[in-house]
Amino acid sequence: MDAMEPTSHTDAGATRSGDVVAVLAVKRLAEAKSRLAASRGRASDGLHRDLVLAMLLDTMDALRQAGVDRIVVISPDTKVLTAAHAAGATSVGEDRIAQPIGADRLNQAFAEASALARRRWPTMRTVMLVQADLPAATAPSMRAVIDAARGLPQAVLTDRNGHGTTVLLRGRGITEPPRFGPGSAAAHRATGAVELDPQHRRWPDLRTDVDTAADLDAAQLLGVGRHTAAVLDGARAPAPATNGSAQSETATKRLRATRDAS
Fold it and tell me: Which residues form a coiled coil (predicted)?
């Protein structure tokens, strides 16, 4: 497991949460968010990959602005790792041929990155496993969820439909893999995780993970972060060229410039 050390970022207005380490897991960009790609049929592969990366960066922004300075991103994709490292995360390479697929692979990735976090920051108290597709996430909600989970061995925040998990907070002593995947909210509750806000009255921004075009629409209604907004604005902007291949090349350059500038 190879790791890149983070680039330092600070936010003078943030509340320090040094006892919390956030862990995010991302598939290869070519494989990530297949349901979203299918439901947004008009989007090109390049635009879709930029969108996946942008949602990760916006999720990280919300964490960092909430005072979570220690962030670990695990992925088999070098573009993801490079972007996460540049944004201040510890990037961990995950590329094992013998690994399982689907939810099992995701949970194993979370477990391996969590183990690295425990070794690297032995004084931390909480591992915060966060879905990497929360483009509407805000710092106040991140801080509030961390505060609500204090004193609990495990706490889970469910998605909009109440079946999935967007955030799982665990004491550092819990080492078994999490249970992300279909029905993960119930699975996490079965392991003893306390559901935060079971009436679903709070934190809609952290409940809105993006798996489909409808989810993306819901996130946009809440207000997405700067990286996701830039990608979506770039996708809507008309290209000056008249020929299709030239239009595609212009859009790709625009998005790449936006991503590199961030």
Answer: none
In sign, the C-alpha dihedral spanning 89, 91, 92, 94 is positive
Residue that the structure tokens 């996460």 belong to: 84
**Phi, psi (5° rounding) for residue 170?**
-135, 145
Closest C-alpha among 28, 23, 72, 56 to residue 210: 56
For residue 191, say whether it is annotated as part of any ligand binding site: no
Query: What per-residue confidence (pLDDT) applies to 35?
Result: 52
Number of domains comprising the chain: 1
| Predicted confidence (pLDDT) per residue in 48-60, tens digit | 789 999 999 999 9
Domain span holding position 124: 3-261
The answer to whether the annotation marks 225 as part of a ligand binding site is no
Name 133's Cβ contacts closer than 8 Å, sequence gap at least 6.
33, 52, 55, 56, 59, 209, 210, 211
58-116 pLDDT, tens digit per residue, is: 999 999 999 999 999 999 999 999 999 999 999 999 865 445 555 688 999 999 999 99
Pairing relationship of beta strands 3-4 and 194-195 according to DSSP bridges: unpaired
Report the CATH number at residue 158. 3.90.550.10
Helix, strand, coil percentages for the chain (3-state, nearest 5):
45, 15, 40
Asked if residue 53 lies in contact with residue 135, where contact means CB atoms within 8 angstroms, the answer is: no
Lowest mean pLDDT among 11-25, 186-200, 227-241: 11-25
Helix, strand, or coil (residue 129): strand
